[in-house]
């Protein structure tokens, strides 16, 4: 038996990918690779270009320039073959409200030509997987928001896809529903599935993704694992203190990196205890908090704090 390929072909690869709408460039020459088994995240403010990229990968929107391949195929030349291997969870719930949970999945299975007996066995298994077996014969309008999101995930798995694409998979869910979806996605990845997701929940991306990119204005700002990005851009910890002249003078003497955020000052550091002790011993800092740095801190540092409509 030959040795495994040390650098197997990526599931998705883009080089210089560009998408224009008239004079406006929504995606500006980006490049990325997504390997088999990745849980890969696309993060960015509203209007950053995430949805445009997803539409290109899903063979919905043609690119303007550059190269992109999915399973080694061009989305514009072989869309049917690619779609046969995709499972998609959209941001909006688009289940058929006239049908039950089981019927929704059964109708969807017919788009892929799955034999009836095989489809029914698979659907029962999927309903159990997303903990909706007891809602099998309940119509969609009687389900909670969390149940609908779980059913969308089950529907995306009906054709046993090699690539799962999720657009805001836990949007609008309560903490219990969100954690259940996280558990199922981690289980799918552990089974070897490749998953691509967009999310505005930075905690979600930090918990789930082994790799991600942060996009803004159609360009990739950074790429890497959540832990590496946090370590490289903000350090392991953040010390927060009240914003006044005495605190700023203390921090200037300490020669540390800090940012003023409203009425607070954030110090990015790998030595939070030393920074906090210096503040208490040297000036009157008022309130001081130390916490672990998160992916949200990286996101805000790179994309800013202004609202995007």
What does this structure look like?
With 309 residues, the protein is of the alpha/beta class. It folds into 2 domains: 12-223, 3-Layer(aba) Sandwich (Rossmann fold); 235-292, Alpha-Beta Plaits. The chain is 36% helix and 26% strand. It is built from 11 helices and 13 strands. The chain has helices at residues 50-57, 79-83, 101-110, 116-129, 145-156, 175-190, 202-208, 226-233, 245-254, 272-282, 295-303; strands at 12-21, 24-34, 39-43, 65-70, 86-89, 163-167, 194-198, 211-216, 219-224, 237-242, 257-261, 264-269, 288-292. The strands form 3 sheets. The chain has a 6-stranded mixed β-sheet with strand order 5-6-7-3-8-9, sandwiched between helices. Strand 8 (211-216) and strand 9 (219-224) form a beta hairpin. The termini are far apart. 37% of the residues are buried. The mean pLDDT is 92.
